[in-house]
Each structure stands twice: as structure tokens, then as C-alpha cells.
Amino acid sequence: MARRLLRRARALYRAAVSSIAWRLVLGAAAVITVSLVAAAIALPQLYRDGLERQLDFELDYLLNRLITRIGAEANGELALAEPMTERDYESAYSGYYWQITSAGKAVLASRSLAGWTLAVRPPRGAAQDNEQDLTFTQPPEGAQRLRAVSRNIRSDTLNKDFTYTVAAVRTEMDENIEDFRLTIVLTILALGLVLVGTVWLQVRFGLTPLRRIPNALAAIRSGESDRLTGSFSAEVEPLAREINALLDHNAEVVERARTHVGNLAHALKTPIAVLTNEAGSQKGALADTVKAQVGIMKEQVDHHLSRARMAARAGVLGARTSVMPVLEGLARTLEKIYRERGIAIALEGPPEIAFRGERQDIEEMLGNLLDNACKFALSRVAAKVAQRGEKHLVVEVADDGPGVPADQRRAVQKRGVRLDEKRPGSGLGLSIVKDIAEIYGGSLTLDESKLGGLLAILELPLAGGTAPRKAR
Predict the structure, then answer these.
(1) Where are the domains of the chain?
(2) From the centroid of its chain, how far is CA 464?
(3) How far is the C-alpha of 300 from the C-alpha of 436, rounded, in Å?
(4) Residue 108 parent element (H or E)
(5) Pairing between strand 380-388 and 321-322?
(6) Does the domain spanning 69-169 belong to CATH 2.30.29?
(7) Which stretches does DSSP call E strand in 262-373?
(8) 354-to-84, 152, 348, 383 alpha-carbon distances in Å
(9) Beta strands of 349-449 (E only): which ranges?
């Protein structure tokens, strides 16, 4: 279980590191987290310091009032000349206390102390205040946390040092600090979530033009378009412009390749034709050998030039051909050709399915399959178009003829192989279909049809969308 969680965490980490959006979001989240954590620590401390300064200011005022109301008696003792009425110093354990000590012993104290002494640290200097926290454990309802201010006063009359202390309970202040800390933590947590969410939305919005690029390229690859279209931001527009320029250059290269292939074909056909004519005008073993070899050369040249032309067409981005119109045109033509035999061709398939490639290539493939089916059919040929998955289409061509034995179906796809020498043909039809399909990344499979004859299954790349877009 732990290993599985670790692998999942590593996968998520790799996915996050490889994503620009997640890098930006995680980086911003890290900065926001550190900043807000620092604020969550600092703000309550600043609030505490402010409340303590406010309480110390009040205690300092009360301490000054206490000092001004203490006088020395003739018997050598201190006495309170005027009662301390600013706070409740009369009720026991009221939460407000004052005391005067000398040499660690209480000299005078408020009635609220009920005879107890506050254990305070004496100030360092003679007239220096000392603010401190202490715990008063004597109250019957429980201990009280106090804030105290002390000051050393030298009495020249009595020739003694006295420590004056005023204290107040700080429970309410501590509760306010805790409430403030909880509020700050919740507020900062909510603020952090809002900031991270805002950053995520901003990154999503900011990277929208970049996400359009893969979608536009997928449209080009699927045949929906032949170049990047749409509006892009100022930062992405140069990239889109360069990609369109690259697509134009690719189209030019493919067109030049087609031209060169055509030129090569014409250049080779002329000397081959000359050799054929010369050999045909002669008799003998040499002439027969030359004619045979020239025939092989012509066949090989035609084959490889045809493959070169198909490869060039297959490399064109944005090529797209609807399948059903091609089948309908071929069916009309073949029904006329085989009218005397009464061959009926049934077609089935949705009109929106399109082949990602050149029209002449799919015409050649389907034409060979339908023509081959019509040659061997008794009366019926059926062609069906369907989509397979998200990337492929399938054309099934079936006939009610004698079919092909299972052990010979692979052999009939080879060049020049014919099982029935009585019927017209060169034995190249299925091999041509197989070659073109493989160039486009597809395949040709032979099986037994439900009509009793041969079933040819042609799988080809599917063009996305429903209609090609015009280039701007």
C-alpha cells in the first residue's frame, strides 16, 4: 500500500513538474503559503504586544496614583493617605491588586490580596519600571494570570528602599488574543485558498492561447484544417505564424517531391519504351531476355514510382476525403461495367466519416476492392463504412462469390499472385490496396463474408470533424 501511494505521488510530482501551469501554480502557492504563515505568526504577536502595552500604560498610571497617595508616618511606617478608588481594590481576589514591599516583606497591600503577597521580581534600578507576568495561585476559584508593573522608590525620610507594585488580571486580554489568533488563522487560510484559486484561474486564463495550439495542430493532422486558424495573443502569435510558415514549406516540399517523381517517371519510361521497341523488332534468345527484363524493369519502376507518389501524398497535412461519396461514384461506374452480369452493389455508412488522406488514394483502394468483388461475385456486392475508435475508420467489402480459402488469403495480397487465371486481371489489385493502406498507417485483412464469398476489411486513419475548413 505504501509503495503504491509512493508511486502515485511520484507520478503526480512528475506530471506537475512537466506542466508549466502546475509549475506556476505550485510556485505561487509556495510563496503565498510562506507569506501567510509568517503573517499568521506575526499578526497575533503584534496584537499581543499592543494589548500588553495598553495594559502596561494603565498599570503605570495606577502605579503613579499609588505612589502619590503613600506617605511616611511619624512612627516610621508607610500609610495610604487617600484610598485607591480607580479599580476594585477592596474585594478579595477582585483581579486588581497593589502592594508595597521592603526587603522582600510586605509593608502595605490592597484588601483584594486578602493577606497574601505577590511574588514579583524587583526592578533593577531605583526608578525603573519592571513589567512582568505572574500567576496568583491563592484565589479560591482558581489561579489568576496577572500583569504587574513594579518600581523602586527610595524614601529619604525612612531611609529605606520600597518596591511599589500594581497588578491586574490578564485573563480577558489573553482570551481576546486567542480569539484574534483563531480569527487570523481562519482568515489567512481562506485568503490563501482564494489567492491560490485566483492564481490558478489566472494561469488557466493566461495559458489559454497556448492550449489552442495543440487543438489547432490536431485539427490540421485530422484533416479539419490545413493551417493554424483563430486569434492568438501577442506572445503566441509569432509561434502560430512560424508554424503556418513551416506548414507552407512542408506543402512546397511535398509538391516538389511530386514533381520530381513525375519527372523521373517520364525520364525512365522513354528509354524503357525504346528498349522494348528495339527488343520487339529483333528475334532470338537475347531479344526475348531483353524483353523479359525490360518488362520486369517497367513493372518495378511503375511500382516504386507509384509508392513514392503515394508516400508524398500521405505526408500532406490537412488532406481529407469523405468516404461515402467515393463509394457511391465507384458503385455507379462498376454497376454499368458489370450490367450484363446483373451485379448489384449495396452501400451502407454515415456520410460524415472521412479519410485522412488524398482522394485519389482512397479511390484507388476502394476501386480495386470493389472491382475485385464484382469480378468474383455471383450477383451481390456489399460495402459498409464504420468508425473504429477515435482514430480509425473501417471499410468492409463483401461479395457472394466463391471466396478465398483461409490458407491462401495471405498469399493473394502479394504482387502478381492470382488464384483464378481464367478471369481478367494482373494480380496487383489487392497488393496495391495493401501498399497504400500501409503507407497511411492502415491495414488490409481478408476474411469470409456473410454472403458466402470474400470479405475485405480495410482500416484507414480517420479525419476528425465533419467538414474541412477553408484556409484564411
Answers:
(1) 2-49+176-206, 69-169, 321-463
(2) 22
(3) 16
(4) strand 105-109
(5) unpaired
(6) no
(7) 321-322, 344-348, 354-355
(8) 99, 99, 14, 15
(9) 354-355, 380-388, 392-399, 443-448
Give me the long-range contacts of 35-44 (CB less than 8 A, separation at least 24).
Answer: 36/188, 36/189, 36/191, 36/192, 39/184, 39/188, 40/184, 40/185, 40/188, 43/180, 43/184, 44/177, 44/180, 44/181, 44/184
Q: Are 363 and 377 in contact (CB under 8 A)?
A: no
Going by C-beta distance under 8 Å and a sequence separation of 6 or more, which residues neighbour residue 432? 306, 364, 365, 368
Question: Considering the entire predicted model, what is its pTM?
Answer: 0.49
Q: What is the Cα–Cα distance from 362 to 327, expressed in whole angstroms?
A: 9
Grid cell digits, residue 13 = 510530482
User: One fold for both 69-169 and 321-463?
Assistant: no
List, in order, residues 6 or more apart from 49 with CB less than 8 Å away: none
43 contact partners, CB below 8 Å, separation of at least 6: 180, 184
By C-alpha distance, which of 450, 369, 362 is closest to 413?
369
Other Cβ atoms less than 10 A from the Cβ of 347: the count is 16
- Amino acid at residue number 199: V
Query: How far, in Å, CA of 109 to CA of 99, rounded?
Result: 4
Residues 6+ apart with CB under 8 A from 395: 323, 327, 366, 369, 383, 384, 385, 457, 458, 460
Fold designation for 321-463: Heat Shock Protein 90 (3.30.565)
Written as tens digits, the pLDDT of the chain (472 aa) is: 777 877 777 776 676 666 777 788 888 889 999 999 999 999 999 999 999 999 999 999 999 999 999 887 767 788 888 889 999 999 999 999 999 998 888 999 999 999 899 988 877 765 567 888 888 888 887 889 999 999 998 888 788 888 999 999 998 899 999 999 999 999 999 999 999 999 988 888 877 777 777 777 777 766 666 677 777 777 777 877 888 888 777 777 767 776 766 667 666 767 777 777 777 777 777 777 877 777 777 766 666 666 555 555 555 555 788 999 999 999 999 988 988 888 999 999 998 888 988 888 899 899 989 998 998 898 899 999 999 888 899 999 999 988 888 877 777 777 545 444 444 444 456 888 888 888 888 998 888 888 888 999 999 998 865 443 333 3
C-alpha cell at 453: 464469398
Alpha carbons within 13 A on the beta-carbon side of 208: 10
CA–CA dist 56, 168 (Å, integer)? 10
Cα separation, 190 vs 184, in Å, equals 10
